[in-house]
Amino acid sequence: MELASLRSALDEAPAHPSSRPTAPFIRGDGAFIAELRAKHSHSSQPESRQLLAIASALLEVVREEGLDPTPTALFAAAMASLERPDVARSPPLLAGMATLLNSLLPRVPNPVLRAKFAPASALLRGLLAGAGTDAQLARPALGALCQVLAAADPADWPAALPSFGLVLAACADARPKVRRRAHAGLEEVLAAMGVRSATLAAASDLVAAEAERVLLGPEAAARAAAAAGSKRRAAAEEAIVAATAAALHALGALQRVAPLLAPEAAARVAAAAIALLPLRQPLLSRHAASVVVALHSCPPERGPGVAEVAAHLRAVLACELSVAERRDVEGVAARAQLLAVCTKRLHRLETMATPGTPSTAVQTWDLLPRVFQYLLPLLGAELDSVRGAAADTLGGLLEACVDAAAIRAAAEAPAAGRPRGLRALVSALESALSAHSEAGWPGALGLCARLFAALGRGGAEAAAPLVVRVAGLCDGADEGAAPDAAPADGPRLAAQQCMAAALRTLGPRAVLSVAPLGLLEGLRTGAQARTWMLPLLRQNGGAGELGFWAEQLLPTAQAIGKRGAVATKGSSGRDLAGFFPMLGRKKDREAQLCATLESQLWACLPAFVSWAEDGGAVWRQLEKPLLEAFHRNEQYRNIVCNSLTTLCNDISRAYSAAGQQLGHANPVAAAATPSGHDQEGLLMDEEGADSAIPIPAHYTLAAAQAGLAELRAASAAWLPQLLDGFLAAPPAQRGTMQATLGALACAADPAAVARLFKTVAQQLLKEAAAAAAATGAGAATEAAAAAPDPERRASLLELALALAGGLDARGVASLVKLAAPAALARDPALQKKGYKVLAYVCERRADYLAEPGRRAALLELIVGGGAGALSAARRYRLRGVRWAALEAMRAEARGEARAETVSALIGEIVLALKEGNAKTRAAAFDLLVGLAHALQDAGASAALSTTPAAGPLAALGGVGTLVTVLLGGLVGASPHMVSASVMGLARLLHEFSAALLHLVPDLLPAVLMLLRSRAREVVKSVLGFVKVVASRLPVEELVPRLPAILEGCLLWAEDSKNKFKLKVRMILERLARRCGYEAVEPAVPAAHKALLTHIRKAHARHERGRQGGDGGDGDGASRADARSRASGRSAWDAGRVFSAGGTTVGGAPSASSRRGGAEGGAIAPSRRRGAAAAADPLDLQDAAAGRELMRSAAVSAGGRRARGGADDDGDDEDDFPRDGGGRMVVHDPEAGGAGRKRRRASEHFDSDDSDFEDLRGFSGLDLALKGAQSVARAPSLAASIGGRSAAARSAGGASARSARGRGAGGARRAQHTGERFKSAKAGGDVSKGRTEPYAYWPLDRRLMNRRAHKAKGAKQGLDAVVNAGRRGPKRTKTARD
Predict the structure, then answer these.
(1) Looking at the DSSP assignment, which residues form a beta bridge with residue 1308?
(2) What are the C-alpha distances in Å from 1297 to residues 225, 241, 959, 1301, 1303?
(3) Residue 1319: how many CB atoms within 10 A of its CB?
(4) What is the spatial distance between Cα 1273 and Cα 1289, in angstroms, rounded to a whole number?
C-alpha cells in the first residue's frame, strides 16, 4: 500500500452520508501519537511499552515519506506494516498493531475506510483467524473489524457478509472480554445501518436466524436428553449445559441490539426469547425477559406493532409462574417488568392509531384484566420484595392505562353479560379482596386507592362494586367467614385508608350512595352502622359538595338530635324511671350516643365547605340551622366558625391566584384555631395557614365570584352575631370567632364592615370616657366605683382590630386614634392590644401610611411610648419599634435629626433580649437580625448614634452601625444593659460571621474583660458569646486566641451556680473538638489540666462506642468531622448559646451532658424542661437530679395554681404571678418585719438576674468581695477571714454536701436512711419489746463494690434484723409474708 497515493485519493474523495461518528480530524500535529504517549508513558507493562515502540516506528515511517502524521497516514502505515511477513510471524507485534489500529480507526474519515474496505476487512479477518486462543490479539482485531464494517458502503454489503458472520460467531465466544467486544461491535454496526433500511433488513435477518438457532438449542437439548439412554446421559447433560451457555451469550448480545433490529426480525427474536419462559430456568427466564423489555422499550415508530405486541403479551400470560419462580425476587421483577412494558406499549400504540375515540385501546383492555389476574396473587407472597414488585407494576399500569377513554367505554358498556374492560379490572381487584387472598389485602387495597385516584368523579359508577367490598372490610364482615368475624387491625387500617382515598377522589356522594352510613337504621333496629366513616368524612370528605351535606347529612343530624332529645326527656321522667331503672339507663346511653353522632355529623361541615363551588349559595340557604348551631354551645359554634373561615379563605385565595386583591391584610390568623385557645401569634398572610394546599381545578374565579356575592349578602346577618358572641364569650374561647371575624371582614361588603366598626368605636369611646372620668373623679366618688373594666376595653379593641381587614384608610385612621391612648395606658392587657393594633398598621397597611404626616405621627407615638411600655406588651411593641427604627433611618437619610431616636429604639430592642417572656426574647433576636438585613439590603450607612461609625465598622454598612450601638452598650451603666449588648453582639456574630470576622481580634479582648465582672448576668452572656466565637471563628483564627479565651473562662471553672461550671466545661470541650487537644493543652493552666484529660478520655470512650468498640483515642477523623460540622452554618438557638446545652457543636453528646450535668449532679435545663429528653435520658439514681426534678415540678404546679386568670397568651417562660406592671410577684414568708434590714444587708447585690444566692450565706461578704479577683473566689476568701456559710453552720463547720455524705470519723455512711419520714410519736419497728422485720434495707453504694471487705460493711446488722423476726413467737403479717 502506497501512502502518497492513498493521501491523494483522500483529497479527491467525495463526502458520503454515514451515521458512523468519527473523532475530530487534526492535520499535521501528531495529536494521536501525543495522546498515546500521555496515556502509556507512565506504565511499566510490556504491552504499553511495545505499543509506544510501534507508534514511534509508524511515526518514523510516515515522516520518511514526507507526510504529516495524520490518522489517515498512520492508518495506511499500519495496514502496510500488517502485510509484512516479519510482522505476521510475531503474535505480540500483531497484538500491538491491532491495539493501535483499534484506537486509531475512530479518527479515520469514513471515505478512507470505504475506499479500502475490501483489503482492510480481509486483513482483519485473517488476524482473527490466526488469533486462535490469543485474546490479546482477538479482542482489538475484532474491534477494528467492527469499525470497518460500520463504515462500509451499502453496495459492499455482499463483501461484508463474511466479516459480519465472524462478528456474530464471536458473540458466543467463550472468552468474556472477546464476547463483550463482539456485543459492542455488533451494536455499533447495526446502529450505523440505521439510515439504510435494505442493509439493516438483511443484517437483522441474519441476527434473527442466529438467535432462533441458538435460543431454541436448550429446549432441543432437553428433549434429546429426555430421549437419550443411560449411556448417553452424561453427553446429553453436557449438551444441555453448552446450549444453555450459548443461549445466555446470545441473550446478552440481544439485550443490546434488539431495539436496533428491523420490525420483522425483532418480532422473530421476541418470539424466540419468549419461548424460553416455559423451560422455567431462572437465568434464561430473566435474560429472555430483559431482551423482550429492551425490544419493546424502543420508540413507537420502531419495533413491533400492535399485533406483534399483543401476541407477545398473550404468550407471556400463558406461562404461569411456578411456586419456585414466585420465590425468585429477580425473576418476578423481570416478569412483572416484561408485562408492564408490553402492556404500556400496546396501549400507547393503540391510542396513537385512533386518538380521541372511546374504544381506542380494545386489545389493551382485553389483556389488562388478565395481566392483573396474573400478578395479583403475588401480593400475598412470602417475600416483601416480591409483593413490592407486583404492587409497583400494577400501580404503574393503572396510572398509564386508566384514562378518560376507558372510563367512557365502561360507562357505555351494557351492565349485563361478562364484564369487560374497566369493569373486568374492577372485578379482578374485587376478587383479590376475597377471604382466600387475605395475605394480599394490604397491597390490593393500595391498588384500589390508586384506581380510585385514576378514575376520579367520572368513574365512580365503575368503581361502585369495589367501594362496597372495601366498605365490607371496614365493617368487619367477610365473605365466607362468620358474621361476627372481623379482619385484623392491619388490613382494617389499610381498608379505612383506601376508603379515605375513595372519599377524596370519587366524592362522598358516590361513596355514600353505595355504602350508606345507616345511622338512623342502626338506632331504630340495632343494625350495624358505619360510624367508622364519620372521622373519614371529617378528614377526607367534602371535596366541594356542600349541597350534599345539606341534603343528606344535615337532615340525618337533625333527626338524630330529635331522637336524642326524646331519649333525654324519657330518661329524666319519674313515672318509668322509678319502676324500671334499667329503662332509664338505656335511655341515658341512647341520649349520649345520639349527641355523639350528631356532633360528628356537624364536625364534617368544614370539610364539605372547603372548595365548594356552591358554598356561598348553600351557606345562605342554611342560615337558620347554622345560626341555631352557633348559639347552641361552644363546640358547635367552633364548627360553624371554622366552616365560615374556610369559605372566606377559599374565596380570597382564588382571587389572589387570579392577581386580584380581596380586602386588605388579615390582622388575625386566617385558619381557625382549636377551641379553648386564643391565637395571639404573629400576623399571617391573607391566605391563611392552608396556603400550601393547591387550589382544585374545579374551583375557578367565576365560582369564587359567585360565592363572594352570596357571602356578602349573608354577612349582614353573621357580622353582628359574631360580634355579640365574641364579647359574650370568655377570653379563652374567642380565638375561633376572632379568626372568623378577620376572614369575613376581608370578604364582606366594606360598607357593612364600616357600620359595624363604627358601633364598636362608639362603645370604645364611651368606655374610654368613663375610664377618664373615673380617673379624674378620684377613688371615693361614685364615678370611680362605676369605672369600666379595662378588660372590656381590651376586648373591644381586639374586636376593632379583627375588622381592620375590611376598612379603608379612613377607617384605619380611626382605629389608630382608638389604639393610641390604649398603647399609653398602664393596664397590661389594654396596652398589649393597643400595640398589637399599631404593629398591624405599621407592617401591613401601606395605604394608610401613604397619607402625608401619618408616618411621622405614628413614629412619634411609638417613640413616646417607650418609657411606659409594660412587659406584657413588649412583644407587639417591638414590631412597631422595628418599623420606627427603619423609618427614622430614612428620615436621617433625608437630612432630619433622628440619630438619637434611632439609637434609643435599637437600644430598646437590645434590652428586650433580656425579657422574661420567651416569645418576646425570640422576637427581639429576630427583629435585631431582620433590622440588620434590612439595613444591608437598603445599603444604609447613616450613623445610629452621635458618634459616627469609623474605620472597619464604617465599611460594614448597616451591620456596622448596629455593632456601633452594641459596642456603646458594653460600657453601659447597668449590668443589665451590658449583658444585653453582649447577647446582641453574639447574635450578630452568629448571623454575619463572614462580615464581622475581622472585628473579632479587637472585640474579643474587650468582651473577655467582662468575665472579671461581679454581675453574674454579664458573665453568663459573655460565656454565650465565647460559645459563638468557638463555633463561628475559623480554626486558624481561633488557635492564637485560645490563651486569652481560656484565661477568662477558667476563672469560673469551679463555680457551679447558674451552671457556670458546666458552661465552662462545654466551652473547653468545644474548643478541644474544633482546634484539637494538642492546640488547647498548652493554653490550659496546670490547675485545670485534669479537666482537659477527663474530657479527652470521655470523648475517646464515646468514639469507641460509636465505632463498635474500635480502639483509638478519639482524636482522628472524628475531630476533623467535628471541625467541618462546627464551621458550617447552623441555626441559632438562644437556649443553647446562653444556657448549658446538651450537645457539643460537633454533634456528639458532651462529656458533661452524658454524665447528667456538672459534677455536682445538677440536671441540665433541657432535662428540666423536657426538650431533649429523648436524646439525653435522666439519671434517676442521681440524688441531685431527683431533688431538682421534684423542685421544678413543685414550682410548675404552684405557678399553674397561682396564675389563674393571667393574660391569655400562655407563653410566659416562668409560672410566677405578675402584678399590674408585668413584674413577677414572689412571696417571701420569711421576710417578716426584717425586710428593711435584709435589704440593707443585701445592697451589694446588683440585680435580680445577677444571682448571688450562693454567696448569701457567707458572713463578711463585703470584705471578701473587696479582695477577691472574681466572684468565684469570694466564698473561699470569706471562709479564710472567718466567714461561714449557712450550710456550713448547720453542719458544724463542714459543707452541706460533706455533712450528708460522711459520718463520724470521716467515714462514709449509708444514705437514704428514711429518718426524715420517721414519726416523732412512734417508737420505730418495735412491737412489745421485739423487733419487727425491717420494711426495707437502706441503699448503699458499697453493696455494688467488687471487693468483699468493702461490701461487708454495708451488710452489717442485716442478719440480726432478719433473725429477730424469725425468732419471734408472734410473727406479724409482715414476717409471714
Answers:
(1) 1302
(2) 92, 84, 49, 6, 12
(3) 7
(4) 20
pTM > 0.90 = no
As a whole number of Å, the end-to-end CA separation of the chain is 114
Provide, rounded to the nearest whole percent, the portion of the chain with pLDDT above 70: 71
**CB-based contact 1037:997 (threshold 8 Å):** yes
Distance of CA 1262 to the CA centre of its chain: 56
C-alpha cell recorded at residue 906: 435599637
Q: pLDDT digits over 864-914, tens only? A: 888 788 888 888 888 888 888 888 777 766 666 567 777 788 888 888 888
φ and ψ at residue 485, rounded to 5 degrees? -80, 140
Nearest to 1270 by CA among 1010, 1014, 1026: 1014
pLDDT of 1240 reads 41
SS3 837: helix
Closest CA relative to residue 958, chosen from 902, 919, 911, 1002: 902
The arithmetic mean of pLDDT across residues 1325-1337, rounded, is: 50
Angle between helix axes 899-911 and 854-864 (nearest 10 degrees) is: 50
What is the predicted pLDDT for the residue at 1007? 86
Whether 500 and 450 have beta carbons less than 8 Å apart is answered as no
Rounded Cα–Cα distance for residues 405 and 358 (Å)? 5
Residue type, 143: G
User: Which amino acid, 899?
Assistant: A
Instruction: Give the residue among 100, 148, 152 at the shortest CA–CA distance from 124.
Output: 148
d(CA 725, CA 632): 11
Query: What DSSP assignment string belongs to 209-268?
Result: HHHHHHHTHHHHHHHHHHHS-STTHHHHHHHHHHHHHHHHHHHHHHHHHGGGS-HHHHHH
Residue 1212, beta-bridge partner list: 917
CA distances from 1037 to 275, 621, 1033 (A): 73, 73, 6
**The pLDDT of residue 1260 is above 50:** no
Q: What span, in angstroms and rounded, lies between the C-alpha atoms of 651 and 246? A: 69
pLDDT tens figures, 266-309: 889 999 999 999 988 889 999 999 999 998 888 887 778 888 89
**Per-residue pLDDT tens digits for 1-55:** 444 444 444 444 444 444 444 444 334 446 888 888 888 888 888 888 888 888 8
Spatial separation of the C-alpha atoms in residues 304 and 298, rounded to whole Å: 9
CA distance 1033 to 1018: 22
Say if CB 146 and CB 170 are below 8 A apart.
no
Rounded distance between C-alpha atoms, residue 1161 and residue 1179, angstroms:
9
pLDDT of residue 896: 67
Distance CA 553, CA 562 (A): 14
Helices then strands, each counted (H, E), the chain: 71, 2
Give the model confidence (pLDDT) of 742-763 as tens digits.
999 999 999 999 999 999 999 9
Q: d(Cα 585, Cα 361) in Å, to the nearest integer?
A: 63
User: What's the pLDDT score for residue 893?
Assistant: 65
3-state SS of 183-209 is HHHHHHHHHHCCCCHHHHHHHHHHHHH
